[in-house]
Specification:
The structure holds two protein chains of two kinds. Chain A is mainly alpha-helical. Chain A has helices spanning 9-14, 18-43, 45-50, 59-82, 89-106, 109-112. Helices cover 73% and strands 0% of the residues of chain A. The termini of chain A are far apart. By secondary structure, chain B is mostly helical. Chain B has a two-stranded antiparallel ribbon with strand order 1-2. The mean pLDDT of chain B is 92. Classes of the chains: A mainly alpha, B mainly alpha. At the A-B interface, helix 2, helix 4 and helix 5 of A face helix 1, helix 2, helix 4, helix 5 and helix 6 of B.
Chain lengths: 115, 190
């Protein structure tokens, strides 16, 4: 998928990349937040009890609900700001991939336990 | 031939939703490569694009069903605490795994990783489905966006693979079972 860009300026103006960029960056943030909230709940007993939204599921219910709610809120906000314009997509996708990578890495318990 | 209610839900979660997602994910990746391998390739037909749009939306539904049934139906059975004096831990999979040093890591690494990494799947594939739905055939003129969508679909395959692998291994070492029994085929007369 490393094909050279075929987007011409008029085409890109008619179909800006902002909405897509907002979705991609928000997904990166959401992925990172799942790991971040899980680590916070694991390290701080007060946060752990706060995250206990549904007792049978335990803190996992709060960790994932918070991550999903923030992900959707960030997505809505970025969409509102970017949907009608072109953004620097290279930097946005780089940031999204870094966040996604951190999310994947930090969900791995032996790595999360090092923090 | 019979199955317990908990066993049936575990099967629906793991095979009905999870394994189907894994298979669908491979299909989606093939479709992406087939359609966009060359920027100079033939124009994608409307029907073809509609198919992939519905396919990705169905994958997103599958991914959400997998994590929601996992977290809110099966996980409570998995992590249930046995009452004091319980002799057999067979109905308490987490405690059963942790009671033996040779199986404890299936919980402390396997389940701990699975229960969190699995949530990256619906996030990634929902994004992919929405972006594809928004841009449709014009995704061809946005190679960076296309690459980002593809990257997240790959990540979702990886995360679903991890969750699926540990799900299968956990269920092998300490199955989530119990509850009422469903008789699929009546007992055979000897």
């Amino acid at each position: 998928m490393s094909a050279p860009s075929t987007a011409s300026a008029p085409q890109a103006k008619l179909n800006p990349n902002g909405a897509g960029a907002a979705a991609v960056l928000a997904a990166g943030i959401g992925s990172f937040l799942v790991a971040a909230f899980a680590i916070l709940a694991d390290k701080a007993p007060s946060i752990k009890s706060l995250m206990n939204f549904y007792k049978p599921t335990g803190p996992l219910s709060g960790v994932t609900t918070c991550a999903i709610v923030v992900w959707l809120a960030v997505w809505a906000l970025l969409h509102w700001r970017w949907s009608s314009r072109n953004v620097e997509i290279g930097r946005v996708t780089a940031a999204a991939f870094i966040l996604l990578f951190l999310g994947l890495l930090l969900t791995f318990p032996p790595i999360a336990d090092l923090l | 031939m019979e199955i317990t209610v908990r066993g049936l839900w575990t099967m629906i979660h793991g095979i009905g939703f999870g394994a189907l997602y894994l298979m669908a994910c491979s299909g989606a990746l093939v479709e992406f490569y087939r359609r966009y391998r060359s920027p100079l390739g033939p124009e994608i037909e409307v029907e073809d694009e509609r198919f992939l749009r519905i396919y990705l939306a169905a994958m997103a539904v599958l991914a959400w069903l997998t994590v929601l049934t996992g977290a809110y139906i099966i996980y409570p059975w998995y992590r249930a605490v046995p009452p004091p004096g319980t002799a057999s831990l067979a109905a308490f999979p987490q405690r059963l795994l942790m009671s033996n040093p040779s199986t404890a890591a299936w919980h402390s690494i396997g389940m701990e990783w699975k229960e969190h990494i699995a949530w990256l799947v619906p996030i990634s594939i929902t994004m992919a489905a929405v972006v594809f739905s928004q841009y449709r055939r014009s995704l061809r003129i946005h190679p960076e966006l296309r690459a980002a969508v593809l990257g997240f679909v790959w990540a979702s395959l990886f995360a679903a693979g991890i969750a699926g692998f540990f799900g299968a291994m956990l269920n092998k070492n300490a199955p989530v079972a119990g509850g009422p029994t469903i008789h699929i085929v009546p007992e055979e007369q000897k």
